Amino acid sequence: MKRLDRELAQLAQAVAAGGDIPALVTAMQNKQRQRETAAATIDRLEGLEKAAEIFDVGAWWKRRASYLRTFWTRLRPILSPAEAASVTF
Q1: Domain ranges of the chain
Q2: Model pTM?
């Protein structure tokens, strides 16, 4: 972000100094779009970071293990003995 802000400031100075204004304005617009994209990406990553901080892996794993046990309990009666013996967790 700092680099993009610095580049935008340099482009603004070039416009003020009387450079090739159409080309500089186009460059400024491109840099501004890059800055907006970077800001949105940072916001999204910060949101994911917050979600990761509160995510309880242990509880999630317990739920998944419970689902697997339930699935296995329902599946076992319809499998042949050989198929049932080949399933491991």
Answers
A1: 1-55, 56-89
A2: 0.57
